[in-house]
Amino acid sequence: SLVVTTATGRGINVIDFLALDQKSVTMENIAKFFKREDSSWRSIQQIIIDKDFVEWRVLDKAFPDAKVLLCQFHVLTYWRKICKRDKLSMKVTKRDTMESAFAKRIN
What we know:
This is ZSWIM1/3 RNaseH-like domain-containing protein. The chain contains four helices and four strands, in the order E-E-H-E-H-E-H-H.
């Protein structure tokens, strides 16, 4: 789904799609379809995505005036996963401190 956020912070679904894969050519075709069907696409200022870097490259190219950002939830989830790795041997208190500091930086 592509969801837009209004000035009041309300999210509105603008297109639903079902993709067979997440290859760049598929994502490019979805972006082209959206741009063809919605002439207001030029007013998009920001795009928030999960951690899919193929999607990031496609959207960055398709919407050159918009800023592509990573979803804070996905960033924090990934950070927690990294901090729990055995090779870091990080104690829980240290991990919590690091997570708190990281969360403050991305807010």
